[in-house]
Amino acid sequence: MKSTDNQANPRSAGASTASVHGGAARDKGFHSVTTPIVQSATYTFNNTAEVIEFLDKKVYGGELNREEYGRYGNPSTWSLENRIAKLEGAEDAVVYPSGMSAVTSLFLTVLRPGTHIVMTDDCYRRTRQFCQTTLEKFGIETSIVPIADYDALEAAIRPRKTRFIFTETPTNPYLRVADLRRLVELGRQYRAMTLLDTTFATPVNLRPLEYGVDFAMHSATKYIGGHNDVLAGVIAGDKGRIKALKDARGILGNVVDPHQAYLLERGLKTMAVRVRHQNESGLAVARYLERHSKIDRVYYPGLASHPDHEIAAAQMGGFGGVVSFEIAGDIKATSDFIDRLRIPYIAPSLGGTESLIEQPAYFSYYDLSSEERQAIGIKDNLVRFALGIEDAEDIIADLEASLYEVPAAVSARQAS
User: Fold this and answer.
1) 3-class state of residue 324 by DSSP
2) Labelling 226: which of 56, 218, 299, 389 has CA 20 to 30 A away?
């Protein structure tokens, strides 16, 4: 049921408890622990009076406890959205078929010709491409500023035109962490909304709405789904703004199907357990790699060497399960290192139960030359390792065996 009057209301507000029970309607009509997959595109009414009662609530305001058509909602989707909102500390949430669908729908719904976005340069490449190509066709401009350069960010804001300040935390692939208090302060000063993609952090490690951020978004494909088997995106925020997004979703038609919602809710229930394990493994692997002579540099916010370590330690409850690092070698030595590993799969995603590894020079930036990649900060020897839930000791042993075969060379760290 859509109504949350009979929701589970656990006394504890911990992430695991909220993941399992938060926002879940205990519908006595179903008598099931899990939310059923309501595999229906349309919904019936018993009589005309019931139709009128429903439409009165829909048009003039009121709590809807049912739906009329699948493009506007589904009980499986409602349950998922309620859970995510509870976990984020948000008034409401809206789910989309992919993370890209979430961010593009938000921009298409809110922005108008003549408006403007400020975005940091470490944001997801496809998001930057959408803003700089598709939105440009509609007369919406985007300014890209260096991550963590708050003076440049403020200088890029156009009073009365900038509608969004957008960044990620941690970013991909260098895991930079934004100072949320400074972002929110700038947003309020210039009346621009703040949007934070916290896919890498998850609500377990960071709840940006508590800092005053207007929208928190995720590629739910990653840690929320958690099993590398479903695509989705989610945006959480206050009820009025999310209602506008849900209304637009009914027009744009980018809805999740009931089975997607079911898989996401199943994954969400174990997210806190998985993420805490990945936090521990991430820190252990990062510390191991930082000590290794065949590693040039490690990027992980849990390390004191990371440029945003102090901010991350103050804002985040854990540092995540992604570790980026540079092999002391060229592009081939890096590829050979990856090919020798036994545990991680070579794949471009993250956040699932299986460890995944990639060389960004190939996966995300293959269309650019080595010089072009260098110009935007993507080195040929860069590796992004997204840890799954395997034992850290086994992962480290696998890394050690492969690093042993890397040709000895003077690392950039040793040379400096």
Assistant:
1) strand
2) 299
What digits encode the pLDDT tens for the residues 16-38?
Answer: 877 777 766 545 456 778 888 88
> Would you say residue 73 has pLDDT above 90?
no
Amino acid at 34: T
Kindly state whether residue 2 falls inside one of the protein's structural domains: no
Residue 5 maps to a domain: no
Assess whether pLDDT exceeds 50 at residue 98. yes
Task: Give the angle 333-334-340 at the CA atoms, nearest 5°.
Answer: 90
The per-residue DSSP string of 113-163 comes to: TT-EEEEETTS-HHHHHIIIIIHHHTT-EEEEE-TT-HHHHHHH--TTTEE
Dihedral in degrees, nearest 10, Cα atoms 237, 240, 241, 243: 100
Residues in Cβ contact with 256 at an 8 Å cutoff, skipping those fewer than 6 apart: 77, 80, 95, 96, 97, 232, 264
Domain extent, residue 81, equals 15-271
- Among 277, 196, 272, which residue's Cα sits nearest to residue 14? 272
Q: What is the pLDDT of residue 415?
A: 52
Residue 211: which of 167, 149, 174 has the closest Cα?
167
Span between the terminal Cα atoms of the chain, in Å? 62
Residues 191, 116: Cα–Cα separation, whole Å: 12
Q: How many structural domains are present in the chain?
A: 2
Domain boundary at 236, 271, 306, which?
271
6 occurs within a structural domain = no
Q: Tell me the mean pLDDT in the region 232-244.
A: 97
SS3 of residue 96 by DSSP: strand
212's tokens: 């005053």
What is the sign of the dihedral through the CA atoms of 88, 92, 96 and 99? negative
DSSP-derived letter for residue 317 is: S
Q: Which residues neighbour 277 within 8 Å (Cβ) at sequence distance 6 or greater?
A: 389
**For residue 189, what are the contacts with CB-CB under 8 A and spacing of at least 6?**
none
Distance set, CA 173 to CA 98, 315, 323, 345 (Å): 20, 19, 9, 18
What value, to the nearest 5°, has the Cα angle with vertex 239 and ends 235 and 242?
35
Given a contact cutoff of 8 angstroms between Cβ atoms, the answer to whether 380 and 370 are in contact is yes
Please give the Cα distance from 175 to 178 (Å, whole number).
Answer: 10
The answer on 315 and 223 residing in a single domain is no
